[in-house]
Design goal:
single chain; 352 residues; alpha/beta; D-Maltodextrin-Binding Protein, domain 2; 7-stranded mixed sheet; 5-stranded mixed sheet; 12 strands; 18% strand
Length: 352
């Protein structure tokens, strides 16, 4: 019997309302804090084009870069725009429409973009974070203490996301993947459905996750599903044509991200202050959320374990799992997943 993804009528209304707001992104500029951070590489004044960046409310180096205005500092003659997206699914829609150059999305969504029927010309150019406890399964009923206890329940999750990938793995391990109702909801809609008692549980990321645990509790995390062989990442995707035409811009962009990762590693309080300003939540909350991720600098990312080779295999594995769940129509050629990984930016920055 095939597991049914049932979308409640009210939940569908919430999704439709949210999608109308975020599909094309909400244009947003970096915050001008009055402090200027020097570009970590030579400023490029030769690029005079437009760079359209997509971000999500996920606490990692992307928000540090946005808050500092580093891209604008490093590319002073460029037109840089930032657009907010609620999920990676909306990001790949923007890639497909040609309205975005670079955008943050989960590794499962990246695998979906490369696979059939989309077959997008997209490159993965950076790993923002390795997802751990920052993506977890929250449950409302205090009597439910295991994944197996969710049999017959309604679980909210953004479909085709890293959280969805982790959730399916957890449900299959618990033997209840055919016995739950999954509700396709973006993070903001998950919070509304939770408060309205329309769902019993949700697998989602920060900062929404912290809101759910105010009156709920966790029964498993992405760290646990990763340990079982299903690792997930937040990555940066880029239109293939943009990467091919602008390798220097990609190098500058990567240097800015690498600077942000090093700040998270060496001065997490300063990084948390910047991220908190972007998310509009307390610094202490951000500091706690950052503990749920692992952050990798350019030297680490450019090695064989990540962008150097292994990430392509992880994308292929994610695609195989999505295919087994009926979430994609077919796999791309094996080399399509390895070819979708662009390591040159990280390698160039690591060599400097």
């Amino acid at each position: 019997m095939r597991r049914t993804f049932a979308v409640l009528a009210l939940a569908g209304t919430l999704v439709a309302a949210l999608t109308a707001c975020v599909e094309s992104g909400r244009t947003d500029r970096s915050r001008d804090s009055g402090e200027r951070i020097a570009c970590p590489v030579a400023v490029d004044e030769t690029f005079t084009g437009t760079v359209r960046l997509g971000y999500q409310d996920i606490p990692n180096g992307a928000l540090v870069v946005k808050d500092t205005g580093l891209i604008e500092t490093c590319l002073p003659k460029a037109t840089v725009t930032w657009s907010k997206f609620a999920s990676g699914g909306a990001v790949i829609q923007a890639f497909g429409a040609g309205s975005l150059d670079l955008g943050l999305l989960g590794s499962a969504v990246a695998a979906r973009a490369i696979s059939a029927p989309l077959h997008l010309d997209m490159k993965v150019v950076w790993i923002h974070d390795v997802i751990g406890a920052a993506e977890s399964l929250a449950v409302r009923d205090p009597a439910i203490t295991t994944v197996a206890g969710l049999r017959g329940k309604r679980i909210g999750v953004p479909f085709a996301s890293t959280a969805h990938y982790s959730l399916l793995g957890a449900l299959r391990t618990a033997g209840i993947d055919k016995d739950v109702t999954l509700v396709n909801l973006a993070p903001d809609a998950i919070l509304g459905a939770w408060r309205g008692a329309q769902i019993d549980a949700a697998f989602v990321w920060e900062p929404t996750l912290s809101e759910l645990t105010r009156d709920g509790h966790l029964v498993t995390t992405a760290a646990e599903t990763a340990a079982a062989g299903k690792p997930t990442f937040d990555v940066e995707g880029a239109r293939g044509a943009f990467v091919e035409a602008n390798p220097k811009v990609l190098e500058v962009w990567t240097a800015a991200q690498n600077w942000a990762v090093r700040q998270i590693q060496s001065d997490p309080e300063a990084a948390a202050i910047r991220i908190a300003a972007q998310l509009g939540i307390p610094v202490t909350a951000v500091a706690e959320q950052l503990k749920g991720y692992t952050f990798l600098d350019a030297a680490t990312q450019s090695g064989e374990a990540y962008l150097g080779r292994q990430l392509g295999a992880e994308l292929r594995s994610s695609a195989e799992f999505l295919l087994s769940q009926g979430e994609i129509q077919g796999l791309a050629a094996t080399e399509a997943y390895s070819n979708a990984v662009y390591a040159q930016g990280a390698k160039s920055v690591a060599a400097q």
